[in-house]
Amino acid sequence: MNKTPLNHWHREHGAKMIDFGGWEMPVSYEGILAEHHGVRQACGLFDICHMGEIEIKGAGAWEMIQSLTSNDVRRLADGQAQYSLLMNSDGYAIDDILVYRRSADHVLLCVNAANTEKDLAHLLAHARPDAQIIDLSADTALLALQGPASVDVLRRLGVELNSVPRFHTLDIAVAGVPVLFSRTGYTGEAGCELFFPAAHAVKVWELLLAAGADAHCRPIGLAARDTLRLEMGYVLYGHELSESITPLEAGLEWVIRWDAGDFLGKSHLQAQKQAGLGRQVVGLKLLEKGIPREGMNVVAADQPVGRVLSGTLSPMLQQGIATALIDRAVLSGASEFFVDIRGKMKKAQIIKPPFIQRG
Model-level pTM greater than 0.90? Predict the structure, then answer.
């Protein structure tokens, strides 16, 4: 398995390790509930060095990205970031990504770990002679500091979090290490993500934990990262969005700029929008005790009408929550929905995520 630069640190500090898409990653340290509430109430630090980083430089860099992504990168100024979708010719997203504008001829893409090789091959297949594509993944560390107390932790390092707008970046130094500070995250809490040379991963990781010791900052595993993102209704590629679930079905039309010119797969999305969607990703909240899990059937009028894409017990609500792909025709017609949990029908309410509200 692939290992992040922090692999030995995790093992030495008692993390439970799992295979996550070919990477050996910490799933938890002290348990999902403690880590989840730790982020919501204080501060947590995530090793996300498995994510991919791809750089594109040259006069044609931005025109190339404009033609391959669904959002409008022309709206970005230097130092801004944008959530977008890397599209294929059939109108499906091959990944959901963050696009960082470093300068007029320099773009940085942050891509999902399991998709890095696929995304890189896709970019190379659509390369332009005036755009150079460089895979920085192996040499780049990426950490996420999340939670309300992250404001105090960063202040001790000389960064005033609230002075940086969401989806903006800064070039800073942390203990002499050059860091790209990004006001982004995947939890719904205040916080940031930090890109820097992988050789300094342990040094920066331990410095952040030390700076956050008084704020009860703790390392957080992938299990709590998933429950945190699901409470906010954030998409996880391969679940709510994939090469079999289109961006429109996933509820991501807000990431599609129809007036931004042509991009790969746009005509297929336009045709789907005009024809109307046959199915839709929705949120489900269980009204009875139970935990919905991926692959379980959603039932209405004693008939399966969809399936669960992601599901868990919300630590904040103490209720089962899920996303599900549902036949759209039944959404307005059916009065009751159930999740089939090992043969027991658990009543569920369809809601629009997020499942919880954060300031």
Answer: yes
